[in-house]
Amino acid sequence: MVLGLRNFTDRTQTGEALLDTENGEELMHVQSGIDIVFNTFPRQSHGTLYISTKQVIWLSDVEKDKGYAVDFLSISLHAISTAPDSYPVPCLYVQIETEADEDDSDYLDSASNAIQNLSKIREMRLIPSDPTQLDTLFQVFCECAGLNPEPNDEEGEEHDWIFNTDQIEDEEAEEEGYNSHNPANSLGQSNGNHDLARSVLEVGSLP
Amino acid sequence: MLFFSYFKDLVGREVTVELKNDLAIRGTLHSVDQYLNIKLENTRVVDQDKYPHMLSVRNCFIRGSVVRYVQLPPEGVDIEILHDATRREARGG
């Protein structure tokens, strides 16, 4: 899986987001009239948001080859932002986990103000034309995040470090061996100490 | 499931969630799920100088896998319950 934001151009003939339904992806929510902002880049208007069981997709209504997507697995947090000191208009604030270094900022081509590398974008704001939709969007995001736990996070979370039955037998054999040899071991060890003491003595007694 | 049930008892209390990217968010614990995804209400960012753009958000959902620490209110830490729970967990249920 690739972390972060990416371009998304898969559309149906009618211009909607084309989902990977063969692999079980389902559409959860569609919201038209959504503007999108990345980091401090200019606001992009007139889009439709598609929230599926796997990802969030924003498609431009105007430019048919323009669209973005981010997997729920890459979304660190989402929040309703209504305070004007955070952002001038109410929006859903989304933080994106990237594989890029924290201080890496070369995604910005300052000359053209264009986004060079989407995978380094760490913040996204979704601005609905109607702010009352924010609560619904927030809830749908929560629900879908719950559908996408970390892939290595096994349900039940019992990690018992045994990988196959051979290993159990090996471990048992080892344990038995250890127990039965234990007295011999300690005897051997004391012998060894004597030997060592003797060799030190011998070395020390050399002229 | 130890921490899941433990955090459930802290719902309604004020906690600080520190993320692996160093962002720390304080708020009222609204809910927590089995993946330790955390929902906070009335949140505010602790280090406001560093994250001025996130000054205040109303509700916040934090993915469990990005959480580094959860700072609990001292009165919300019942050591006896934690002792019992960890012993039970160590015995395998």
UniProtKB/TrEMBL annotation, chain A:
Any single GO BP term: cell volume homeostasis
Highest taxon listed in the record's lineage: Eukaryota
Compositionally biased intervals (Polar residues): 179-193
InterPro entries, per database record: ICln, ICln/Lot5/Saf5, PH-like_dom_sf
Subcellular localization, as worded in the UniProt entry: Cytoplasm; Nucleus
Region feature (Disordered): 148-207
Compositional bias (Acidic residues): 167-177
Pfam families: Voldacs
UniProt keyword terms in alphabetical order: Cytoplasm, Nucleus
TM annotation in the entry: none
A cellular component annotation (GO) from this entry: cytosol
Membership in a protein family: Belongs to the pICln (TC 1.A.47) family.
Protein name: Chloride conductance regulatory protein ICln
Source organism of this protein record: Lupinus angustifolius
Source organism phylogeny: Eukaryota, Viridiplantae, Streptophyta, Embryophyta, Tracheophyta
From TrEMBL, chain B:
Species the sequence originates in: Lupinus albus (White lupine)
Keyword Nucleus set for record: yes
A GO molecular-function annotation: RNA binding
Main location: nucleus
UniProt xrefs under CDD domains: LSm2
All residue ranges annotated as the Sm domain in the record: 2-76
Subcellular location(s) per record: Nucleus
Protein name: Sm-like protein LSM2
